[in-house]
Design a protein that fits this description.
binds nicotinamide-adenine-dinucleotide, alpha/beta, Rossmann fold
């Protein structure tokens, strides 16, 4: 039996984690927003003589996400009290708090190894009744939780929000082989009635439903662009507003999603579809990988196909 969802923990405070936390806070659910200690000090932190162990540094990623949410979302769009319901913190410092929440949402990088390791750590503090879900774009729910105990796996499922979580109505719920169907039904009802989402129940297949189609279309567009010698601007001109999709121009979307995340998502289908002919369609172009190596990740790094102004 699950508990009513009154308190949540969101792990990973990037594009999606911060957006999901904001959406939860906005419907009145207090949540922890946790992230790892940044790998390096900023120039300013170094100049102040701080170390990676200093609380301000340990909390920097999650605290920055909350500060950004406050700045970029005016009160008419978000309940004024929303930000106060989010407690940013460092994952290592707050891991034990997992035992006190009703829903833990994993929203870290799209990497099976990282997600598996995180779930092991979550399981150590998890209490039966608490739902644990992943926001993965398409990594197998069963593969992610294969090493976890059966009781934990019964409480584990995919809850795939779309970007931006506040505005995108679609949410895929993905049960694994062992997920309790009663918990899936409860989560569906919660997401529809409390979070205002339109829920699609998806199967645990590579990239589920919407991203399998979306990634396919995006990669086909990139191949056509290369073959036809079109520019980024030309492709955006014909793939967004011109088609009546104001927010979905190809390269604007890639910058919003994160180019690194898109490459992980494409690679995941490539690695996991058994059909050789289908694999071909999911080869991420080398040009995207070079942008990632250069640190041009899209809006989150300030530069992708477009420079963020
Ligand atoms: P992101 O790169 O913006 O953020 C990832 C965050 O996870 C970073 O803040 C990073 O520091 C943190 N992190 C990494 N390892 C961690 C760990 N072990 N513990 C705690 N925090 C850790 O990525 P994102 O775009 O927010 O994507 C997160 C998840 O959501 C991925 O699984 C992705 O596939 C999925 N998703 C992304 C989108 C999108 O449009 N970007 C849409 C739907 C789903």
């Amino acid at each position: 039996m699950s508990k009513p969802i009154r308190k949540a923990a969101v792990i990973g405070s990037g594009i999606m984690g911060s957006g999901i936390a904001a959406h939860l806070a906005n419907v009145g659910i207090p949540c922890l927003l946790l992230d790892v200690t940044p790998a390096q000090l900023t120039e300013e932190e170094a100049a102040r003589g701080l170390t990676l162990e200093h609380p301000a540094v340990r909390n920097r990623l999650a605290a920055a996400a909350v500060a950004k949410l406050k700045k970029t979302n005016p009160p008419p769009l978000y309940d004024e009290a929303f930000a106060e319901r989010i407690t940013p913190g460092n994952l290592d410092d707050h891991l034990a708090s997992i035992g006190e929440v009703d829903w833990v949402i994993e929203v870290v990088v799209e990497n099976l190894g990282v997600k598996r390791e995180l779930l092991s750590r979550v399981e150590r503090y998890w209490k039966p009744g608490t739902i644990v879900s992943s926001n993965t774009s398409g990594i197998s729910i069963d593969a992610m939780s294969a090493h976890c105990g059966e009781a934990f796996r019964r409480h584990f499922m995919g809850t795939h929000f779309f970007n931006p979580p506040r505005y995108m109505k679609l949410l895929e719920i993905v049960p694994g082989r062992d997920t309790s169907l009663e918990l899936v039904a409860r989560m569906k009802s919660f997401c529809e009635n409390t979070l205002g989402k339109g829920v699609v129940l998806a199967k645990d297949t590579p990239n589920f439903v919407a991203n399998r189609i979306g990634t396919f279309g995006m990669l086909a567009t990139l191949r056509e662009m290369e073959a036809g010698g079109f520019t980024v601007e030309e492709i955006d001109a014909v793939s967004g507003p011109a088609l009546g999709r104001p927010k979905s121009a190809t390269f604007r979307t890639l910058d919003l999603v994160g180019i690194d995340t898109f490459v992980y998502v494409a690679d995941n289908v490539y690695d996991n579809v058994p059909d050789e002919a289908e694999k071909e369609a999911f080869i991420a172009p080398e040009a995207l990988k070079r942008l990632v190596e250069r640190g041009w990740l899209g809006e989150k790094s300030g530069q992708g196909f477009y420079r963020k102004t």
